[in-house]
Design goal:
- The protein has 158 residues and is α+β, with helices and mostly antiparallel strands.
- It has a domain at 62-112.
- The protein has helices at residues 18-28, 39-42, 60-85, 91-102, 104-112, and strands at 4-8, 11-15, 52-58, 117-126, 133-141, 152-157.
- Strands 3-4-5-6 form a 4-stranded antiparallel beta sheet. The chain has a two-stranded antiparallel sheet with strand order 1-2.
- Strand 4 and strand 5 (133-141) form a beta hairpin.
- The longest helix has 26 residues, at 60-85.
- The radius of gyration is 22 Å and the shape is elongated.
- It starts with a strand and ends with a strand.
- Mean pLDDT is 81; it is low at 150-158.
C-alpha cells in the first residue's frame, strides 16, 4: 500500500495507492467506465443514481476461507512450538493451552462452513435532507448446494 491523501475540486480524496486514485478521478471526469457498469457490481442489484460519497466491497467468502485456513494451520504448527516451549515450562502449565490449541482445526472446519456469505457492498450517498446521508448495503448469500461463484442477493437494507 502507498496511501494517497489530497484535494481536488473541493473533495478530500483518500486512497490506498496512486493508481486507484487516478482511476477514480478518470471515472469522475468521464474518461473511464464507472464501477456500476461492471458485472460484479450488477450482481448486487443495487441501483445507484447521483453522486456516491463512499463505497466499500468486501469478499466475505474469501475472508472466511482465509480464517479457516489460518486456524487449520495454527492447529498443526502451534503444538510443535508449545512442545519446544515445554522444555522450559512444566507440562502441567502448558496443558490448558495445548487443549485449547487442539480445538483450532475443528473451529476452522466450522468457520469454513460460513463461506455461503459471498460478498458485501456498502454505498453512502446524500440523503433526502440537507446535511444527511443514506447508507445502503447488500450481502450476497449463496444458496446451499450451489457453487461458490453464483451469488444470490437475499438481503438488502437501507
Amino acid at each position: 500500500m502507498r496511501p494517497v491523501v489530497g484535494f481536488r475540486d473541493g473533495w478530500m480524496i483518500i486512497g490506498c495507492n496512486p493508481e486507484a486514485v487516478e482511476r477514480v478521478l478518470a471515472t469522475r471526469a468521464g474518461n473511464a467506465p464507472a464501477i456500476v457498469a461492471s458485472d460484479a457490481f450488477q450482481r448486487f442489484n443495487m441501483p445507484i443514481e447521483g453522486a456516491v460519497r463512499a463505497v466499500s466491497y468486501t469478499d466475505i467468502a474469501a475472508a472466511t476461507r482465509k480464517a479457516a485456513k489460518f486456524l487449520n494451520g495454527a492447529g498443526a504448527v502451534l503444538p510443535v512450538i508449545f512442545g519446544m516451549i515445554g522444555m522450559e515450562a512444566g507440562p502441567e502449565e502448558l496443558r490448558p493451552i495445548q487443549e485449547a490449541v487442539a480445538l483450532l482445526p475443528d473451529l476452522g472446519k466450522i468457520i469454513e462452513k460460513f463461506d455461503f456469505m459471498e460478498a458485501q457492498l456498502w454505498v453512502v450517498q446524500d440523503g433526502p435532507s440537507e446535511g444527511t446521508w443514506m447508507e445502503r448495503y447488500t450481502i450476497q448469500i449463496r444458496p446451499l448446494g450451489t457453487s461458490a461463484d453464483s451469488g444470490v442477493d437475499l438481503l438488502e437494507e437501507d
